[in-house]
Amino acid sequence: MKKIRSVDAEVDMNQAGKKELMMGNEAIARGLVEHGCGMATAYPGTPSSEILASVAALQKRFGITMHTQWAANEKVAFEIAYAGSQTGLRTAVAMKQVGLNVASDPLMSSAYMGCAGGFVIICADDPGPHSSQTEQDSRMMAMMAKIPVLDPESPRQAKSMVGLAYALSEEFRTPVMLRPTTRVCHCRQDVSPDTIPTASRQPDFKKDPLRWAATPKFRYQLHLELEAKLAEIAAYPATAPVRRNPQASGRRAVVASGVAAAYTAEALGDLGLWDQLPFYQVLQPFPLHTAFVERLLGDHDEVLVLEETTGIIEMQLADRQRVKGKLNKVVPRVGEFLPEKVERLLAAFAGLTTAIPELPQAPGRRPTLCAGCPHRASFFAIKKAAPRGIYTSDIGCYTLGMNLKAVDTVLCMGAAISQAAGFYQAYRNAEKRPDIVATIGDSTFFHAGIPALIDAVNQNVRFVLVILDNRTTAMTGSQPTPATGTSVSGKPLVKVDMETLVKGCGVEFLEIGDPYDLATFTTTVKAAVAFSRERGPAVVIARHGCVIDLARQGELAAPISVTINDDCDGCGYCLQHFECPALVAVDDGARTAVDPLVCMGCGVCLNVCPKGAIVANG
């Protein structure tokens, strides 16, 4: 059996033709360095997070001259990479689909101005969704921005499409989106690495203010040029749809893109339809090739379109009578495609009566914060300090504070602070104003919380902000934050001091506490709540490292052995209000016990039981 190796395995991957088993994100990273990417930036977000980390690993191993960077947010990452492309370098920026919302401002403008060197926007979508606020389709953003988008079906094709994206970008001097989805990003496939170039391009920024700093009058001209580009791109031979089974003939046809194309190829074979149902794979969903549209509708009476998650191809075919898809609800509009779903859709389209059983779904398990997570202690203290408060929160591990009834709202990155301000203004003149406590992670604070905090200070919003500082970007794989002081490749960087930053926003009340010291930390949060009621915004930094990250670095403190004595009467208070996975109900709920295999030995629970039944051993 072939040994599985990732891109950072000890093997010379610069030997062309030697297949390696790669994750989709690793394959994309390999494609970037093979095609001379000189600058790669990103903000972490599942399912895209491994792309930049894999690029950095290749950079380090092969001594590649390039810049790699985790940026403070997706907008910053986009603008850095785009500036690199303006100098003639090949550059790339990676993010997830909701991250593209953050970068939408430069996205729209860069489409008008175009680029000099190839510029690839890798936007990983999450149909389902598995780990996102939405399952939005980034191809809609590409359509709105008027840039071409490529839709890979597999890791192997994703790697090859990187080269195609660079060629397309430089041919038409336009940004190009590469849009893998979760199943492409995180599946693995044998991929043949090619040679990594030894020579690198030199930056050469050619000043052209009428283009790079165009005023509205000249933007109109750039828009005309962009429309002309799109017409040419819709005839670009390299991105034309591919007929996968040219031997098949018939008046019915199937069109698919992305991972749906891979599922379609398999399902047609399984159903015995490979030689009967013409199948076209669309590589470039937007702009859809004009000649293909004319030929498809001329040759076939009925067309089934399979794509995730919005009917982008379907909209461009613009024939509601003959085209079957999401717009006429033949194909589900919500959720990701799975092979079984695609097989059922194909069977129904072909008129087969074969019953394809629904696979039983395993029951889900409620997600919860890790045993020993410092956020759990922070939430417990917040509820003690403001028991009838409104709790706004943000995007991160700590969203799971909703299980502890300490999170009432989650909207998007940075919204915890803005929504806290909104609640304050709504209740400002009410007879009774509730306490308002916002929680935000350290990485999210740097990402999008600072402008909101400045605004809250300016408006003298009376609320408490608890910055949950676990010293890393925990939810997406422990990437560094601006306060960490290390780059994606581990090199030292200048640390940004969070306390100075908060003070610089104009905050008067700022305290730092360790949530593991629960009694003291609770007192600190109570003081912050009291200050906020009378004077204005108060900030508490809850600082304790992520237990997973600390364990990985061998920095965990000596564990505290905990047990539950006979004073426990099974009231369930610890289970309901603290919800540590190491605390479990036993004897049909008559009492609670500690699971030693799960317990991290943080000792925070010693302060939780109202009857004092949780005690330290010895």
CATH top level label of the largest domain: Alpha Beta
Please give the alpha-carbon distance between the first and last residues.
50 Å
Classification by helices and strands: alpha/beta
Q: Number of DSSP strands? A: 23
Q: What oligomeric state is this?
A: single chain
Low-pLDDT ranges:
1-14
Proportion in β-strands? 15-25%
Examine the coordinates and then state which fold CATH places here, giving the name of the CATH topology of the largest domain: Rossmann fold
Q: Radius of gyration, Cα only, in angstroms?
A: 27 Å
Number of helices: 21
Number of domains: 4
Helix proportion of residues, in percent? 25-40%
How can the largest sheet be summarized?
6 strands, parallel
Average pLDDT metric: 93
Main-sheet strand order equals 3-2-4-5-7-6
From the spread of the alpha carbons, the general shape counts as globular
Supply the CATH superfamily name of the largest domain: Thiamin diphosphate (ThDP)-binding fold, Pyr/PP domains
